[in-house]
Design goal:
single chain, mainly alpha, 2 domains, flat, Ribonuclease hi
């Protein structure tokens, strides 16, 4: 296979996974409990996407497509996503769904008569058959309060009240210099300036003065 053809197939597979497959994955933990014949209706979409990306013939066996594209079937991918969901949820005991998934009886997952077992419930059976205990998963300790609420800084925006077109540069320079001389302020960039700016009016807008010890900041 030529290098250019391999690159094209790689790009097409990436496009398929980004634009098509993610839509098939969305909500699979929920709709994965549907009947198997209903879920099989999604397989042709998956197979057609792989055929187009690989440039394969219509007669190419499905398993050959999976092997050539390094892509699992939708059934195995739904199970993998369910594993990830259960493992992630197990580490977050404060999540509202944690109590429903891990403390509710498994019979509650199949409340509808003659329904297929829930996909999440099936993962417990796979963990049990593999002799893997979910109790060994450590809880993820979430910082409380979150970092953005830990420091309630006061912002002084008095410089923004100055009209840049009418205010003299000397006045802006004087106000900016007085902030620099203060011991409670530290100069930080807001990211608005991509390059050094010589105009003092623009500097007053592009630089913020964040607190070093006092809960106060100014622009």
């Amino acid at each position: 296979m030529s290098e250019s053809l391999a690159n094209i197939r790689h790009i097409l597979l990436k496009l398929y996974r980004t634009l098509v497959r993610f839509k098939l994955d969305y909500g699979s933990v929920i709709y994965g409990s549907a009947k198997k014949h209903v879920l099989r209706a999604l397989d042709p979409i998956h197979h057609q996407g792989l055929r187009i990306a690989l440039g394969a013939f219509r007669t190419t066996p499905i398993k050959s497509l999976y092997t050539e594209a390094w892509e699992p079937s939708l059934e195995h991918r739904r199970m993998k996503l369910a594993f990830n969901y259960v493992l992630k949820l197990k580490s977050l005991p404060r999540n509202p769904c944690h109590e429903i998934v891990f403390e509710a009886p498994l019979s509650d997952f199949s409340a509808v008569t003659k329904s297929e077992p829930n996909l999440v419930a099936n993962t417990f059976e796979h963990f049990k058959n593999a002799n893997i205990s979910l109790n060994i998963i450590d809880n993820l300790h979430v910082q409380c309060p979150p970092p953005w609420e830990e420091h309630n800084n006061t912002v002084d925006i008095s410089l923004t009240q100055q009209n840049k077109e009418k205010t003299r540069i000397g006045m802006l320079r004087e106000q900016t210099s007085s902030m620099k001389c203060s011991q409670t302020w530290a100069k930080t960039s807001t990211g608005a300036a991509k390059e050094p700016v010589e105009n003092w009016r623009q500097q007053c807008v592009d630089f913020a003065w964040a607190t070093r010890g006092s809960p106060r900041a100014t622009f």
